[in-house]
Amino acid sequence: MNSRTSDWFETKIKYEKTAEDGALKPVIEQYVVDALSFTEAEATIIEEMSSYISGEFKIVSMKPAPYHEIFFSEDPKADKWYKAKLSFITIDEKTEKEKRSMVNYLVQAATLPGAVNAIGNVMGGTMIDYVISSVTETMFMDVFEHKINSKTNQKDDMPEYNKAD
Questions:
Q1: CA distances for 154 relative to 50, 148, 157, 163, angstroms
Q2: In this predicted model, what pLDDT tens digit does every residue of 12-64 receive, in sequence order?
Q3: Quick one: which H or E segment has residue 47?
Q4: Which end of the chain is less enclosed by CB atoms within 10 A, N or C?
């Protein structure tokens, strides 16, 4: 289980999907996209979905996600996404009263108990006191992370400067 913190956007796309009987059926599917802006999120979802959908599709909704961290599973059976709301417990030093801060996460898992277990695995390595307030299954089909175009910096690619002696 690994986690990734970023800015995420929840998107919905509408297109016609071929049903098992061969008929075209209009569907709306939800995806999560890693992006810094609406423009980048739109470009990413268009690029990603163009390889999966033959025909036209339309982005019908896009909004910033209420979470910034996603817990990714390495289990190939983990094909569902769960929204988790955790309450972090701190003590106010001045008043000595308990204070709770709510934080949302998105968790990849195969089952609801698997999502709760994943939260325990990730948060168990921290010193933060927390309570799981809720875990609910989402309708997200997939999460698309930002792709980094890596360029190797070889010596031949670097400009040479002649020093005058």
A1: 34, 18, 5, 21
A2: 999 998 888 888 899 999 999 999 999 999 999 999 999 888 888 999 999 99
A3: helix 38-50
A4: C
3-state secondary structure at position 9:
strand
Contact 118, 82 (CB under 8 A): no
pLDDT of residue 46: 93
Indicate the SS3 state at residue 45: helix
**Which of 107, 99, 95, 93 minimizes the C-alpha distance to 128?**
99
Q: DSSP readout, 102-147?
A: EEEEEEEESSHHHHHHHHHHHHTTS--EEEEEEEEE--EEEEEPPP
Q: In degrees rounded to 5, what are phi and psi of residue 158?
A: -85, 140
Rounded CA separation 46/43 (Å):
5
pLDDT for 52 equals 86
User: What pTM was estimated for this model as a whole?
Assistant: 0.81
Ranges 49-58, 99-108, 156-165: which has the least confidence: 156-165
